[in-house]
Amino acid sequence: PVSLSCLAQLHSLRISVPPDLRPEEARRAVMVQVGELLRRHGEAGLPRLDPLEDMDLRDPQLPEIVGRIEALEAQLSRNPVFRAEKDATKLAPYLRRAALAARAEELRGQMRTSQLSAFREEAGCRMAVLRRLGHIDEEGVVTLKGRAACEIDTADELLAAELLLNGTFSRLEPAQLVALASCLVPVEKSAEAIKLTAQMAEPLAQLQAAARHIAEVSRECKLDLDPEEYVEGFKPALMDVMYAWSKGATFEQVCDMTDIFEGSLVRATRRLDELLGQLAAAAAAVGDMQLADKIRAATETIR
User: Fold this and answer.
1) What is the C-alpha to C-alpha distance for residues 163 and 203, in angstroms, rounded to an integer?
2) Chain centroid to CA 280: how far?
3) How sure is the predictor about 224, in pLDDT bands with cuts at 50, 70 and 90?
4) For residue 11, what is the DSSP state?
5) Taking a C-beta distance cutoff of 8 angstroms, is the pair 265, 258 a contact?
6) 160-186 burial, b if ≥16 CB within 10 A, otherwise e?
7) Other beta carbons within 10 Å of 87
8) The whole model's pTM is what?
9) Residue-wise pLDDT tens digits, 21-66
10) How far apart are CA 184 and CA 158, in angstroms?
11) How far is the C-alpha of 244 from the C-alpha of 302, rounded, in Å?
């Protein structure tokens, strides 16, 4: 049996085919006969069956169809790409390119699978961090501390929740609270050396200790996190500036305290205002209404 897609043309020549083509000798004998016919007819090709003369088909549209087919075949035979297909060496680079493109797509699929696997592994490590820090319990249920962290999205929620619940914010006066929270707000680099007042040295040390604890827990849970780099990410560049602003200094006075541009100061203050609002909501979420009111009062000092 031969499928119809294997048939290319019908010719008027016939060869004798053995009744059983399974033996190798029988197949070789057929191929010898075909090869001899091809050699004898050369470039002219084997004579094809004519649907009108040889097959006696009398469909009135058939002559027009046959004429169109012959015209298209003649046009095709003049096409350089069609002729090049007979020379495998000319198409080899294109075939190789197609094979490489298919291989590239296969590798991209493997990369996507690998990235998904890496994501699952990292997600497991992050779940372990949340469990160690008390944001979720052993069953993966969000705890009260986790609910507080969920209220914060403008800063590092792990560190913010840590400072909120370990009593750091509760022990600070409003201006100190504002100044310490400014370390959580990203700000452009300052070329000036940072000079902190005595009132802010201890709160900053507490923030850095909490950040180092989070980083060390993350490293122990196999997350790629450098503790020193993580701690250095919370820069106290605006602590004294925000402390003075909260205490009632003029805008001109606070601008003279830093080389950061005025527009950047305004933008940082607006971000700090948003962060303080989220910290107040987080304190309320854990039921500490006294701290929530204190943070809201501190927010009013910078508005």
Assistant:
1) 10
2) 34
3) confident
4) B
5) yes
6) bbbbbbeebbbebebbbbbbbbbbbbe
7) 9
8) 0.60
9) 899 999 999 999 989 988 888 777 788 888 888 888 888 888 888 8
10) 11
11) 10
What DSSP element (H or E) covers 241?
Answer: helix 239-246
Distance between CA atoms of residues 50 and 210, nearest Å: 91
Torsion, CA 59, CA 61, CA 63, CA 67, rounded to 10: -150
The tokens describing 278, both together, are 């989220």
Angle in degrees, 0-180, between the axes of helices 262-285 and 157-165, rounded to the nearest 10: 60
pLDDT score of 278: 95
Identity of residue 167:
G
pLDDT in tens, 61-119: 888 888 898 899 889 888 888 877 766 677 788 888 999 999 999 998 888 877 777 78
Quote the CA–CA distance of 114 and 107 in Å, as a whole number: 10
Q: Which residue has the tokens 């490590």?
A: 125
